[in-house]
Design brief:
It contains 17 helices and no strands. With 396 residues, the protein is an all-alpha fold. It has a single domain (7-395), classed as MFS general substrate transporter like domains (Growth Hormone, Chain: A, Up-down Bundle). Helix 2 packs antiparallel against helix 3 (77-85) and helix 4 packs antiparallel against helix 7 (166-184). The longest helix is centred in the N-terminal third of the chain and has 35 residues, at 9-43. It is globular and about 55 Å long.
Length: 396
C-alpha cells in the first residue's frame, strides 16, 4: 500500500497487523447480531433477553475500555493486548454450551471484553504511529467493515451447510488465535513503539471542550451502530417477515455500504476539516435513519440501509480523529473516552429490547431516530467550537 511507505519497517508490520485485528473485530461485532436470531430460535429466548445479550457485549466493551488503559501499564502493552484478546475465544465457546441465560450473558460479556480491549489498543497504536492521520484511521476501519461483511455469511454458511451455527464460533476462535500469535511479533510498548508510555498522567482532559463534545458524539454514534448491527437481522426477519437468508444479506449489504463509504471517506477526508466532515456524515445519517424507521415499504428500507452504511462509514474514525491530539497527550484519555461513550451501546440496545417486548420491534427500533437527531445537534456544536478554536489560533 502506497500510504504505508512513509512508515518504517516495524511500523508497517504493526499497522498491517492492526488491519488484520480490525478485520477480526468486524467479525466479532457482527457475529453478535448474526448469532442472536440463531440463539433465539434454538434456545427460545425472549426479545428482552436478546436485547440484554447485545447489551452484555457492550458492557464487556465498556469495562475493558477503561481497564485496558491500566492493564497496559501494569502488565505491559503487548502482554495485556494478547491476554485480553484471548477472551474472545472463551466467549465464543461459552455461548455454544447451552441456553442458560447466565452462560449466554457471560459469553457475550467475554466477547465484549476482547472487542473493547483490542479496539482500544489498536486505535491507540495506529493513532500514535500515524499522528492521528484520518486516512489511516479510515483504512483501518475499512478492514473492520470487511470483517463485518464476512461474519453473516460465516454464520449462515455454518448453520445451513454444516448444519450447526456453532461451527462459525469455532472457526472464528481459530482466526482469533492467529491474531494473538501475530501480536507476539509486533514491536510495541517498551520494546518498540512507545505507545502510551510518554504521555501525561492525570485527568485534565475532562476540562477540554473538544474532548467532551467528541465524547458525546461517540456516545450517540456507537449506540446507533451497535443497535443497528445487533438488531438489523431480527428487525428484517420479524418486522418485515423476511427469510433468515434475506435478513443476513441485509446485514452484509449494510457493511458492504460501510466498506464502500470508508474507502470514499479515506479519499475525501483531507478535503475539509474533521468537524465539518462529522457534520456532513451526521446529516446523512439522520436523513436515512428517518427513512429506515418510516416503514413505507421494503424497497425504501433497503435503500435506507445502504444510505445508513455510507454515512455511518466514516463517523467513528472522524470522531476519534477529532479528539486525536488529546488522546496523544494524555495516557488515560483514550480509555475513559471509550468507557463513557460505551454507555451508548449498553443503553440503546436494551431500550430497544424493552420496547419491542412490550409493543413491537418497529417501535423499539424507532428510538434510534432520537439518537441520530442528538448526534446531528452535537455535530453542529462541534463545528462551531472548531471555528472558535481556529479563530483564536489565527489571532495569536
Amino acid at each position: 500500500m502506497v500510504i504505508l511507505e512513509k512508515l518504517n519497517r516495524d511500523e508497517r508490520f504493526i499497522v498491517r497487523g492492526e488491519f488484520y485485528i480490525f478485520f477480526l473485530l468486524g467479525v466479532y461485532t457482527l457475529m453478535v447480531g448474526a448469532l442472536v436470531p440463531q440463539i433465539r430460535t434454538e434456545y427460545s429466548i425472549s426479545y428482552e433477553l436478546s436485547g440484554l445479550l447485545i447489551s452484555a457485549c457492550s458492557v464487556g466493551i465498556l469495562s475493558m475500555n477503561v481497564i485496558s488503559s491500566y492493564t497496559a501499564i501494569w502488565l505491559g502493552l503487548k502482554r495485556a493486548y494478547m491476554i485480553q484478546h484471548a477472551l474472545v475465544i472463551v466467549g465464543l465457546v461459552v455461548v455454544t454450551i447451552s441456553g442458560e441465560p447466565a452462560l449466554l450473558l457471560i459469553g457475550m460479556v467475554f466477547i465484549g471484553f476482547a472487542r473493547g480491549s483490542s479496539s482500544n489498543y489498536s486505535n491507540q497504536i495506529v493513532n500514535d504511529i500515524t499522528k492521528s492521520n484520518l486516512k489511516f484511521m479510515n483504512l483501518m476501519a475499512a478492514f473492520f467493515a470487511i470483517g463485518a461483511c464476512v461474519a453473516p455469511f460465516v454464520t449462515v454458511l455454518a448453520a445451513d451447510t454444516a448444519g450447526n451455527w456453532r461451527y462459525a464460533c469455532y472457526g472464528v476462535s481459530v482466526a482469533g488465535a492467529a491474531g494473538i500469535l501475530l501480536t507476539q511479533f509486533m514491536k510495541i510498548g517498551k520494546e518498540g513503539i512507545p505507545t502510551g508510555v510518554e504521555k501525561r498522567g492525570g485527568y485534565a482532559f475532562f476540562r477540554r471542550k473538544k474532548y467532551l463534545v467528541s465524547l458525546a458524539a461517540m456516545f450517540c454514534y456507537s449506540g446507533i451502530e451497535i443497535s443497528i448491527v445487533g438488531w438489523l437481522v431480527t428487525f428484517f426477519m420479524e418486522a418485515q417477515n423476511t427469510t433468515t437468508q434475506f435478513a443476513s444479506n441485509m446485514a452484509t449489504l449494510l457493511w458492504a455500504s460501510i466498506l464502500a463509504g470508508r474507502i470514499i471517506c479515506s479519499l475525501l477526508s483531507n478535503r475539509t476539516t474533521t468537524a465539518r466532515f462529522i457534520l456532513y456524515l451526521s446529516i446523512g445519517m439522520a436523513v436515512f435513519m428517518a427513512l429506515f424507521i418510516s416503514n413505507i415499504n421494503l424497497t425504501v428500507q433497503i435503500a435506507a440501509t445502504i444510505g445508513l452504511g455510507l454515512f455511518m462509514s466514516g463517523t467513528y474514525s472522524a470522531i476519534c480523529a477529532n479528539a486525536g491530539p488529546i488522546f496523544s497527550e494524555f495516557k488515560l484519555a483514550f480509555g475513559f473516552f471509550f468507557m463513557l461513550s460505551g454507555l451508548g451501546p449498553v443503553i440503546l440496545p436494551s431500550i430497544i429490547g424493552f420496547i419491542s417486548e412490550r409493543r413491537d420491534i418497529q417501535s423499539g427500533i424507532s428510538i434510534l431516530a432520537v439518537a441520530a437527531a442528538a448526534l446531528l445537534v452535537i455535530s453542529v456544536f462541534n463545528m462551531r467550537l472548531d471555528k472558535r478554536e481556529h479563530s483564536s489560533q489565527n489571532e495569536k
